[in-house]
């Protein structure tokens, strides 16, 4: 009887527009080693895959060895778990359809799971975060963009093509603000970073006095600082943002009936200036039987931790595979 | 060895606001016997359950006998499959929380499954209709109200409380038309029956000549007849209705990524006057990667057939139970 | 809006060692057209696939046309639904690994699902037969061989490699009768056709008088006829067969805890001569808490109907695909 | 917006015949506090539930407080997750049907999940042990008794009544050794603790010289020590034990097709004396296509750790509930 060697670690990779983070994670979500490089250093996807593979092997060899790693999970914007490809990512350097899962598997000789960042975030919250023990919930990521994912009966709802959860591109204002996607009135244009700045600019146009005029740069973070100083117009910026977010979430919840909505991403750190008007607007608009029943929670994991952990959970979900067996 | 007698039939019940239909259905969806009575004849729910039970027993005794029936499935507005209750139904005679599944089971001595009409419709389409073989799809019911249900990975998405799919009460016009639910701008107020009539009245207010002025009664059906005669204002009524419907469905689809959207209910029979503008608006608003990919289909089952068949599928999904074993 | 044409029919194919049957089946399990040819006429698998494809197209063109067919389901001995291949089939003309699903799909241009006959039988019973409405059950096929499949929580248990359910090759007599598989004491050698004949020969060797000596050919069917005439030795043949079957099934049930065991295949028609001793032996050996709780049922579908219907259900479970889209 | 307080801990309880262990466990499987008492001190189940509840509350109050605990998971011999009861446990002090889940929930005011020890062990291995990332596997517990559980498609196979996995009471020798369950030839009588001693006694009866004659007490552990010293008869004891185990497992695997078989419990520590003959016998008897494909693994969790962790995973799987909401 040949002894079978159990593999107790996986690699979680989080590709974001600027930084690619990769970490060795054990079964219980302990991050054993972690490193990162600039995504933007690799405008060619082949050189990116080579670099990612080399970096992973180096990290792994310094931490127990290649043969202790079971598989790899990868989070990326615009990735489809159904096709295993990154598809037409707006802000990544690589255009068109990139079969990243297959490329990395062939290069590194281990099973690779790929899914988009919103789904991986949700998986991270489900496995190690606020959504642990929940079966139906929504995870929202509000930052530069607005992504989401919901779970149905304890499983990631992927949809027919793997595109489910495009909350940022639901229309909240018919013929509203122009969106980079080509449509008008997308929620993302009101509640993600650029949208908040636009709202501030629109409000400032009327000439009302505000601390925001003194800011070197108008950003969600600097606007929030004005709120903290009691600036009424800044507070109004977040109130309007929250109102839109609450309306969008109410529609989402009326369709999905979640136990909780979990907020992640930089904008979710805006605190009460965003959350209170958002919750109030949510309660005003959500289907009556759900009023007072949906928990709105700010994630307690950091963004980078969540995505690497979610990618590690994804890694465990793909069947084991090795070139050397 | 005692011979085990297989039960090959169930009873499907469809409670709607006016009529309650009940039928004996076999495994393959053949309706073997069917009857109905007026829901409104029983303002007291106890007498309703007694009547329903007596009627079912009578039908069953005339068609093979009680001992050939495995279980009962019931479709009702405002029913929750999670609680087994009809909860605060707006248009049924019985108010508050009605534990109908338990009441009927205790009365008739067979297992009873209960779910709301939108979910039962979806189950009917999945088992015997257009959605057979699909894993992710939306079923819409457009009539007096606007209900929906979606399937996730081959299963009815129920949500945390069993309320998922309240599409009619998603907000499409912030501070728009008043809805009976207490909110403003609910989609139902624009695309269900009363909403279509309201749109017609609004358009007619301007004084434009139209055949609609000659109608004895303004209803979705009579307005459609005007469309068929080439009446431009009537066509505009449906164009606006379709535009709203398409926008709402685009948002729904961007979140759920369905293979198909299946339209049921009286309004879905309006044909091209509704469907063409709805589809055009849907394509304009849906998340880009989904454009051209979602099938919009009018159901090929009649409304009464669908709900009785769906209820029969529900009956098969509950564990068998008998007082007499 | 381009009208979407719903496909309401599939093709179910049952490949058995001698005959290949193919039929057009609708959603509700109505067999609309059916034909067959000799599997053994095609010792080369390429010519088999060509013939099967041509025959299907011919049948389909005569019955509504190719464009009305959604997909194809195929049942075959030794097929794995995990790999889509027929693997080392003992009694089919084609040796080694045959990627039949891919071959047929490429030839005919429609999605093809493949699974082994035991699993397809179980799917047939689940969808249209005795197991409808059950979540945990075993389907047994007793004929030339002894196959099985069980459902876990409403789904076919496939196992890690798609080989689950090899009940015929569980060992019931350590160092017992030699089996074609190379092992000794396999249950199949005691309860499938050849095993029953062997038991008869062993019992006859002692010289006891019996009608079986006058039979032109000793087969399960002719032995049963002797039972029907009251021949004690023939009855003893089936008693011993039943005892073994009951022991094997008791072990199976103690592991799986099924609601029912459904018997299919030619030997299951032996009636009380087999079933009574089998059930008695089952009750003697099964885990105590299960005694009296497991239903033993002879299938009410004919063998050919069941497999074609099961293959049709399999066809609906594969994602739609068409060369011409 | 009222802030929602996330609960990040559960209590895992392992009731075994002698000791009851309870621990506070966080999401990641860290055991934060742990204690135990003698099950046998409470011959009355009401006083047991009171003691367990009081002890849990005391531990919890000393470690973050009652309001930080989400729910409780309980592992017990003879427990059914379907009924929530301990049913006719042979070796626990409480006879008949004990509705432990409901009793504990009513006493402590938190949601309680209950399942039998074999299933909880499997859940422990799946969540935090060797089976992490596997979908189809068997977990075996060999000690005083012989229990098992298998996973089907990533979920615990419970069976129709919650009794699945009674591997110890499958019959491996028709009319073999008498078992406490009333049957003959149960596998437990050959491979669990008492069976190994019986085998030793049978072998020693022939008079062959052996170190085992000098042992103060014949137990699996002392017999293993003789093996370690090279005693041939002791080695033969384990060889026969392994042969039986391998035969039983081969039958199990031929039905279930697992990726791995994971051995837990005291006897699994016997090392190569047991495992080598077990694996050899397994390979001899398992269905041909599975030969060389099933991993046989000794668990790397300690028995007490596994069951408390498994119970914590069970706790997360039940819906949250609180008397005080």
User: What oligomeric state best describes the polypeptide chains here?
Assistant: homotetramer
Low-confidence stretches of chain A: none
Largest interface: A-B, 47 and 47 residues
Mean pLDDT of chain A: 94
Query: Considering DSSP H and I runs of 4 or more, what fraction of the residues of chain A is helical?
Result: 25-40%
- SSE order of chain A, as H and E? EEEHEEEEHEHEEEHHHHEHEH
> Helical region count of chain A?
9
- Shape assignment of chain A: globular
Please tag this protein with its features:
homotetramer, 325 residues, five-stranded mixed sheet, globular
Commentary on this structure:
- The structure is a homotetramer of 325-residue chains.
- Chain A is an alpha/beta fold and 325 residues long.
- Chain A is 36% helix and 21% strand.
- The first copy, chain A, contains nine helices and 13 strands.
- Chain A has helices spanning 45-61, 100-108, 117-128, 188-191, 193-204, 220-228, 232-256, 272-285, 303-317, and strands at 9-15, 19-26, 31-38, 69-76, 79-80, 85-87, 97-98, 111-116, 137-142, 146-152, 155-156, 260-264, 295-298.
- In chain A, the strands form three sheets. In chain A, strands 3-2-1-4-8 form a five-stranded mixed sheet. The first copy, chain A, has a five-stranded mixed sheet with strand order 11-10-9-12-13, sandwiched between helices.
- The longest helix of chain A has 25 residues, at 232-256.
- Chain A is globular, with a radius of gyration of 21 Å.
- The two termini of chain A are 17 Å apart.
- In chain A, 55% of the residues are buried.
